[in-house]
Design brief:
160 residues, 7 helices
Length: 160
């Protein structure tokens, strides 16, 4: 039987990909970063299902759903998840925007020859409230919300 910790770890990996700018996934296609954001939101929201289906612990769907509904960022993940599933992201007012930072630097090789490099780093922002928040910060805050719940339910150790 699958344990909730599998989904929790998957959620953390998706957040890590957002933090890294998913360079290994983007492959010159910025939509890869958008896809990673939606995958994070879906994974985050569906932790409710994993908790409910893992009978090795005591948290059931009702308690997890009540918590998610009481936490605006987690509830928004539910909107994103359901909106993307039913092709209604506009109706749910899910809005993302991309910004790229371009850095250039020179590296000297072992012969002393200088080589110029340009790095283009995409960064994704999601509308939150009256403004935008970077997708990594959004994801990090969602995980912090889950951590509070899971610690309160004694499924994670207390913070050090």
């Amino acid at each position: 039987m699958a344990e909730w910790r599998e989904q929790y770890a998957r959620m953390q990996r998706w957040q890590g990909r957002l933090w890294l700018g998913v360079e290994h996934l983007v492959a010159r296609d910025d939509q890869g970063l958008v896809d990673a954001f939606y995958a994070f939101a879906q994974t985050c929201y569906h932790l409710v299902d994993w908790l409910d289906n893992d009978h090795s612990q005591h948290v059931r769907r009702r308690a997890a759903e009540q918590y998610v509904e009481s936490r605006p960022m987690l509830a928004y993940c539910g909107d994103i998840c359901n909106g993307s599933k039913h092709a209604q992201l506009q109706a749910k007012r899910v809005e993302v925007t991309m910004r790229k930072t371009i850095s250039s630097f020179s590296v000297e090789d072992e012969t002393g020859e200088s080589h110029d490099h340009v790095v283009e780093q995409p960064e994704l922002f999601v509308r939150w409230g009256d403004g935008f928040i970077d997708a990594d910060s959004f994801a990090r805050q969602c995980i912090e919300e889950w951590d509070r719940f899971l610690r309160g339910e004694r499924l994670l150790p207390p913070e050090a």
